[in-house]
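1st attempt posting a full record on here, be nice pls
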Amino acid sequence: MQFLMDNITVILSLIGTGVFAGLLAGLLGVGGGIVIVPVLFFLFQALGVSSESAMVIATATSLATIVPTSLSSIKAHHGKGNVDFALLKSWALFILVGVLVGSYAVTAVNPTLLTLMFGVIATLSAINMLIGRKEALFNNLPGKGGQSVMATCIGLFSSMVGIGGGTLTVPTLTFCNYPAHKAVGTAAAVGLIISLPAAITLLFVGTTPPDAPFATYGYVNLLGFACIVPLTVLFAPIGANIASKLDAGLLKKIFAVVLIITGLRMLAQVLI
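the predicted structure (as tokens):
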């Protein structure tokens, strides 16, 4: 009976995660790992999973959920002509190299380092969102060498902390005076290049931690995947509809503050 009650609690919590992530994706235009990873990280710990196991499972599960949602996003952005396939072609191999190295690192490094990295990335992303810098730092993208480094780093760090294309790709491109609408559309495709090989690697290469929650295979919690994906797809349009009636700028700033608090809390858990 206790096993049944515990699993019901897990399922309800994961359903809540999917609803929350979907609404935020629609409300604020954010989503993927930047929302799902911290929620799963703290949720799994509340269910008795160690912080180390919780981080790697949250990372892998987040990457798995990004695969189908990025496909839907690519279709929408491609219909508007906002996916730069020429840029993707030149970046794809370097992103993939970064992803493979990052995915292996997840299975090899101390999970505390992953928590630290996510805390730093989440906090910096939130500060960037809060400040809302409009002007570009550079006039254009660097040459092929510079772009290869950028693409490799995006693949490496995104796969290590379970985030998709938007969190790192959009600010990287817009800081180089790249059109914002194309940056968002292209980032959706980058998210697929990151999430698919990373999720497959962590599903089949990762050794399931002994304290992993129910239905975890490798590092991916399949129950979480099954609960989160349909609900993010279902609730994202609802969030977008709500956003059209509210002050999107204020909502984004509120989320940025919450994300800063979350990032700092994750850092504190590692450093204190």
